[in-house]
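Folded chain entry
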Amino acid sequence: MTVYEIVTDKIMALLEAGEIPWRRPWKSSGPARNLISKRPYQGINLFLLNCSTYSSPYWLTFKQAQERGGHIRKGEKSTLVIFWKWLNTVTQRSDEIMDTGQESRLTKIPMLRYYNVFNLDQVEGINQPAEDTEVSSPFTPIERAELVFQSMPNRPDIQYGGDRACYSPQLDYIKLPNQEAFRTAEEFYSTAFHELSHATGHQSRLGRKGIMEPSYFGSHEYSQEELVAEFGASMLCAASRIEQVTLENSAAYIQSWLKVLRGDKKIAIIAAGQAQKASDFILGRRDEEPEITD
């Protein structure tokens, strides 16, 4: 039995056993919010700021930084955020007022405005609020897993920082939280392997439909691609001998997407087959299976 078959069987057994709670493998820094008011940003602003590569959830304007005794580091660029400003306007035309004898009425209309903010990581002279300062665990690489991570052929660019893990098919890069933010080194590699598995679908690698063709969150194609990536992560963890720490959380993640697909276990098996090809590519093996033993 190959390592792929062993991992797939273990995951399917966990799925059959019942509900498994999924947990985020890294420590969240919380939603993006203003340093002074502590109010979280909303709407598109929250998306734009959380997609940044910075580790701090705090943002402030140039003026706010100056007022706090800090200054923006040389060469740093601001990030645009928008807001709606309400303006008063007259609702009736003058000829209508003459005809009816009614007074004009003022109503409010929204006007789109914007301003620029900087992340606290871009500012010198202002420290992270003490209540949000968390002692990070030092990251110790796991030799076998690190070798897999570093040795992927045609590996995409890796960017660290922020509070989310993702792969951009358009720009062909992977974004990961800082390694120290992960609860364990095993969970860092599991997350990294998930994104590397996504990246194998790029047209310069395996050209997988789930990556090459646009799909919306929660669609059948998107959901199946998530299964491929998580099965791939589990297989790479097994090849790195760390699957015993990460397998249950991987099964929980797969289970969550199977709910979107109405529990279709056949889809899971198909995704596992695609994940095997992704894992083979990352491991640099095309015609042979990775061995479990040394």
Q: What stands out?
A: Residues 224 and 271 are 6 Å apart (CA to CA). DSSP finds ten helices and nine strands in the chain.
